[in-house]
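Because discrete structure vocabularies remain unfamiliar, we first show an illustrative case, written as a sequence plus integers encoding its fold.
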Amino acid sequence: LILAFFGIQTLVLFRIDQWAPNEWKTQVSLVKMVLRLLSSLIFLTVLIYTQEDAYNMVIQFIILYLIFMIFEIVEALTNLREN
């Protein structure tokens, strides 16, 4: 369930990245981070209210989310240094 959510989220954000003009790349990357955070919070809220024993799934989700965000922030900083 968690991997499916991350897969769908990545596809949607990848499409947003393709749509954006090159002049907006920095702003779009920040908007994508915010959208990822908000959609993850919504997913966690739904997960907590629909699952009976959601504690383990929430911990797994937070770990995967933090790993992905660290990767995304490092990549964003690398791209900003080039400019």
Q: What stands out?
A: Residues 15 and 39 are 16 Å apart (CA to CA). The radius of gyration is 14 Å. The chain is about 85% helix and 0% strand. The chain has a mean pLDDT of 86.
